[in-house]
Amino acid sequence: MSCMRFSRRISITNRAAQLVGVRGFAIASGKGKKGPKGGANDAPKASLMSHEVKSTTVVGANILKDGTDLKIMPDSEYPDWLWRSLDKRLTLSELRRKDSESLPFEDLKRFVKLDNRARIEGNNAARAKN
Fold first, then answer.
1. Is 128 buried (19+), middle (13-18) or exposed (0-12) by CB count in 10 A?
2. Most distant CA atoms of the chain, gap in Å
């Protein structure tokens, strides 16, 4: 009698899993699968946008629902700081090797900031519980 109840529970849980949509392992497909899904048809498709649109707009930069993609402006329309933002800046060890009297103001500010940061990290590491 108890075996009968146990087998009924198993069959009920299997049916419930099928109804709910519990997924199992995928079935391995054959190597020679051909047709509309798979094979040589998986190659990337060419872009549908024209070359002119690609070179004049920033595709994907729009964050607004009703907005349009941004247009690329001439270099003179952008602020000067934008072009300096990618310049390489000196590291702390390079700044320490130079004479602080001859450093420009921006490099001197950077030196003080990096030196303070390194000092704080050193103090925190010394006080850390091991």
1. exposed
2. 95
Backbone angles phi and psi of 58, in degrees to 5: -100, 100
Residue 77's pLDDT is what? Answer: 92
pTM exceeding the 0.70 threshold for the entire prediction: no
At residue 116, the pLDDT reads 96
Reading the block at residue 55, the tokens are 């070179």
Residues 28, 25: Cα–Cα separation, whole Å:
9
Cα distance between residue 111 and residue 108, in whole Å: 5
Average pLDDT by stretches of 10, the chain with 130 residues: 51 53 58 56 59 74 86 90 88 90 92 95 87
Cβ–Cβ < 8 Å for 59, 69: yes
Kindly report the three-state secondary structure assignment for every residue of the chain: CHHHHHHHHHHHHHHHHHHHCCCCCCCCCCCCCCCCCCHHHHCCCCCCCCHHHHHHEECCCCCCCCCCCEECCCHHHCCHHHHHCCCCCCCHHHHHHCCHHHCCHHHHHHHHHHHHHHHHHHHHHHHCCC
